[in-house]
């Protein structure tokens, strides 16, 4: 894969991370709301909150792995600068 393709894939991975993280956070908040009887049309149940919490966890964990691999892909293209040795002036030549 070319350098541009690898960078584009890493950027799409970071965008996917953000999407999965936001969806996981929303589902976690929704699960907490269902467990404490926040929408008054439903009876609060801890099982619903636990189910939504596990779904949120199932979204957040792959998002972290996706971010780690994307960052690793971007770091592989970092240019390593090798310092040049300092040159000494010749003695007697001025």
Number of helices: 2
Mean pLDDT: 84
What share of residues are in beta strands?
under 5%
Oligomer: single chain
| Number of discrete domains | 1
Largest sheet: none
Please state the overall shape, judged from the principal axes of the Cα atoms: elongated
Question: Kindly, what is the distance between the CA atoms of the first and last residues, rounded to a whole number of angstroms?
Answer: 53 Å
Low-confidence parts: none
Q: Can you give the helix content as a percent range?
A: 55-70%
Order of helices and strands: HH
Summing up helix and strand content along with how strands pair, one would put the structural category as mainly alpha
Tally the beta strands.
0
Q: Taking Cα atoms only, what radius of gyration do you get, to the nearest Å?
A: 25 Å
Structure commentary:
With 94 residues, this protein is mainly α. The chain has one domain. Helices cover 67% and strands 0% of the residues. Helix 1 packs antiparallel against helix 2. The longest helix is centred in the N-terminal third of the chain and has 33 residues. The protein starts with a helix and ends in a 19-residue tail after the last helix.
Question: In terms of topology, how is this protein built?
Answer:
Layout: H1 3-35, H2 46-75
Helix pairs in contact: 1-2
């Amino acid at each position: 894969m070319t350098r541009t393709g690898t960078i584009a894939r890493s950027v799409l991975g970071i965008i996917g991370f953000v999407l999965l993280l936001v969806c996981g956070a929303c589902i976690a908040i929704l699960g907490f709301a269902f467990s404490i009887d926040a929408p008054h049309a439903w009876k609060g149940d801890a099982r619903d909150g636990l189910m939504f919490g596990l779904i949120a966890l199932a979204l957040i964990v792959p998002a972290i792995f996706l971010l780690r691999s994307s960052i690793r892909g971007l770091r592989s293209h970092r240019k390593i600068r090798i310092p040049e040795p300092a040159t000494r002036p010749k003695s007697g030549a001025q």
